[in-house]
Amino acid sequence: MSIQNIKWEKIFFRELLNNTVTVPHLLLDYYSEIGLDESQVITILKIMRYVGSANESFFLKDVLPAFSNEREKALGALSLLVSKKIIGREKSSLDDEPVYSLAPLYDNLWEIWAYLQSRSSGKGKQTKKTGEKGSKKKDAFTAVYQSFEQEMARPLSPYEGNKIADWLDNCHYKPEIILEALKRAVLYGKYNFAYIDKILLSWQRQNLQTLKQIEEQEVDHQGKGKGANHPANKTGSTKGKMSKIDSSIDKDDFALLIAKSLKEQKGGENG
Question: How many domains does the chain have?
């Protein structure tokens, strides 16, 4: 290689490094967990190119070059990311142009980072076996997290994400048990984590560790309270066999649920 070629090669690499976008690894590794696809990740990287990965706020004019200076195209892409709670949008105090923010993106990545930290806290270097176990835990967390967001019809807060991680990693609740508690809470109309936590604690006190054990306990409870031939004791779905989970749960809620259960079963028999 000639001296001239070496000179140009150095210039090339210097320019290459000077025009680099810093990309969070968490974004590349977990973009699907926060509701993004690959094309939307590319859009975010283009935005970061013009506003900087550490600069959270920007105006539309700042990122127009990322969209070939096409205003409508830029507005459409930004609106989609705003609807996904990846980019924030607020009215500017200076003019009519809204100000956008990358803060929601970093909030989402923070939730994932917090979960990973809670999972690895106090642990040494993972072996291949523990690494596979960690991967399964990540999958379980993702499945539970997405189910909660779907049922609650809103993004979860960092506290709620950490609570799910705590249930899985520290309380050692099985994913299916957490999701069952979520179903019970939704059926009661109690869309809050405190209520779900009460259900899980109640089952833990009774040493109910599987869905079958929960079902059998409820059938037994109903049999003692209402007689073996009562319609509420007929085999059916989980929703048709709800019982009082714990004294901390309102009795009025339980009565309404049983009435709903009987109505559903009566409708099934007439059908």
Answer: 2
Residue 148 resides in a domain? yes
Residue 115 contacts residue 161 (beta carbons within 8 Å) = yes
Strand partners for 100? 58, 89
What pairs with residue 101 in β-bridges? 57, 88
Instruction: Identify the residue with better confidence: 37 or 3.
Output: 37
Instruction: Write the CATH number for 249.
Output: 1.10.10.630
Specify whether 171 is located in the same domain as 260. yes
In order, the DSSP letters of 200-261 are HHHHHHTT--SHHHHHHHHHHHHHHHH-TTSGGGSS--GGGG-----TTS-HHHHHHHHHHH
List, for residues 42-66, the tens digit of each pLDDT value: 999 989 888 875 556 888 988 999 8
35 and 83 in a single domain? The answer is yes
Order of strands across the sheet with 98-101? 57-59, 98-101, 88-91
Q: What is the CATH number of the domain that holds 69?
A: 1.10.10.10
The whole model's pTM is what?
0.44
Count of all residues that appear for the chain in the document: 271
Same domain, 54 and 155: no
What is the number of alpha carbons within 13 Å of residue 10 lying toward its C-beta?
A: 7
Residues 258 and 128 in one domain: yes
pLDDT band with cut points at 50, 70 and 90 for residue 263? low
Mean pLDDT on 82-87: 90
